[in-house]
Design a protein that fits this description.
Elements: H1 13-28, H2 38-45, H3 49-61, E1 65-68, E2 72-75, E3 80-83, E4 102-110, H4 113-119, E5 126-136, E6 139-148, H5 167-177, E7 182-193, H6 196-201, E8 209-219, E9 222-232, E10 236-239
Parallel strand pairs: 3-10
Antiparallel strand pairs: 1-2, 4-5, 5-6, 6-9, 7-8, 8-9
Length: about 250
């Protein structure tokens, strides 16, 4: 990895440095290889460590680098294609055939304020929270919480002899949800930062870039459930099978 003179470059230093580093990743480093530490990189390029961090953060956002706990900054593999849609079609509930998610646990707790507003429930009202995960190529790429108000699923799994947070109760919530006639769904996608719980589940550092897909499920003239799915932005290229599978992010 050679040096370069940055003082005469009209664009921001970190942006030009990002380009130089990206070229070096292509020519000098293999996938999974660990980069030198920040002090050595900053000295080699004659930039402040703050400038270097900006460049590294941008490369992480673009999926070129990964920060891994206890390892450091490594060269990322190409992004994997992750289909956000369902093989069963756009008008299906979570957990239907073709669903790629693994159901893990359930708890009864208030939803986050934005989700509570979408569901039309009080901020302190307990709802069903079903935690699910998604794995591609042996790697967990997404974590989801499906929020279902009790009015949609009033009393599932009353016969399940298991702790309330168990996977059996979570699956029971999904079964009861399937009894409703799904009228439609809508999705939004935005860039976010990994919160502590999702970071732990996805093997990311807190604050790492993620893609947040929020899906609102409609039934009986209102919102019957809301899903908030957090995808790894460094490894995922999202597509939507129910909307002609247009890629959201390029490799």
């Amino acid at each position: 990895m050679g040096t370069t003179q940055l003082e005469t470059v009209p664009e921001p230093k970190y942006w030009h440095l990002k380009t130089v580093l990206s070229d070096a990743l292509d020519s000098e480093f293999a996938v999974g290889e660990i980069l030198p530490n920040e002090r050595d990189l900053a000295a080699r390029f004659g930039v402040a460590r703050a400038t270097l961090r900006q460049a590294l953060e941008q490369l992480e956002l673009e999926g070129r680098l990964q920060r891994r706990r206890g390892v450091g900054t490594t060269v990322a593999p190409p992004r994997v294609g992750v289909d956000v849609g369902s093989e069963a079609g756009p008008h299906t509930w979570p957990g239907a055939p073709g669903d790629a998610w693994h159901t893990e646990e359930h708890e009864a707790a208030p939803a986050p304020a934005p989700v509570a507003r979408m569901l039309g429930v009080a901020g302190d009202a307990a709802v069903h929270a079903v935690r699910r995960s998604r794995t591609t190529g042996g790697q967990q790429v997404a974590s989801e919480v499906l929020y279902v108000p009790t009015v949609s699923v009033p009393g599932p799994a009353t016969d399940v002899e298991e702790e309330p947070s168990g996977a059996a109760r979570a699956r029971a919530v999904l079964r009861e949800l399937h009894r409703l006639q799904l009228a439609g769904q809508d999705r939004t996608v935005e860039l976010g930062s990994a919160r502590a719980d999702d970071a732990r589940r996805l093997d990311r550092l807190p604050g790492a870039p993620v893609l947040v897909v929020t899906t609102r499920y409609l039934a009986d003239g209102g919102t019957a459930a809301v899903s908030v799915a957090t995808y790894r932005a460094d490894t995922c290229r999202l597509s939507f099978s129910d909307t002609d599978a247009v890629p959201l992010l390029a490799s």
